[in-house]
Every structure is written in structure tokens, then in C-alpha cells.
Amino acid sequence: MYVLRLSLGGIISFLSIMVWNKTRDTAWMLIAISSILQYTSTISQILSSLGIIFGKPKMIAGVPVFPLVLSFLPQALTATALIWFLVRSKKR
Hints:
By secondary structure, this protein is mainly alpha-helical. The chain has helices at residues 2-22, 26-49, 65-91; strands at residues 59-60, 63-64.
């Protein structure tokens, strides 16, 4: 399962970087950043589950900050990009 997640995430991240280089459109850039952050989240989860990442996570109000940001931010960026697409298409 790890190999599949890493392989597909790597392909998606590579393609995102290619899209990022080809376009300067804000919505597409947000999608690219979102997919790269999602891959970062996958790598972090795998390293943590394998016991490679050690140390006490930084907590705010009893919630680990880094995993929360890595799980929330890609979805927030994707939602922002989709809203950006909708607003832009409505103006046309």
C-alpha cells in the first residue's frame, strides 16, 4: 500500500510541477500546490507509521499542528481553486 501511495503521489506531484511551469493561472497554481502538499502529507504519515519520525509533535490545544495543517491545507487550497474557477467563469 505504501509503494502505491508513494508512486501515485510522486506522479501527481511531478505532473503538478509541470502544470505549474506551464501556467501562471492562480487556480491551477493552487491545485498544483495542493497536490504537492498532499504528497508531503502522505510521506509524513508513512514515515510516522514506520517509526522514522521521532519526537514529540508540537501541540496547540491538544491537537498536533503539523498533521492538522498537512491534512487541512490541501483540501482548503483545492476548494479555493474551485471557487476561483467558478467566480472567473461567472464573469465571462
